[in-house]
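Trying the structure run again after the queue cleared.
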Amino acid sequence: MPSDPSWRPALDRSVMLRYDRVRDADLLLMPERAVRLSGTGGRILRLCDGSRTVADIVTELGRTYPDAPLADEVPAFLDRIRAEGWLR
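Done. Tokens:
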């Protein structure tokens, strides 16, 4: 099911987002697991604080990436992360 634009995503309580200087990458840290994020994944997830809607996140990212197809790509990315159980 595609993301509802009014959904206010937030990382699950068991998940932490950290920047790893050695790997020069954002990581999602979970009990007994770490996932390296590529591209703008970390930037998107930093905006997932439970106060912004999906539409707000798309708008915010649009200021930095005005020509990117964010209206399609951001909700699809968030849906994949939610399907893994990393977003609530």
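The radius of gyration is 13 Å. Worth checking whether this holds up in the mutant runs.
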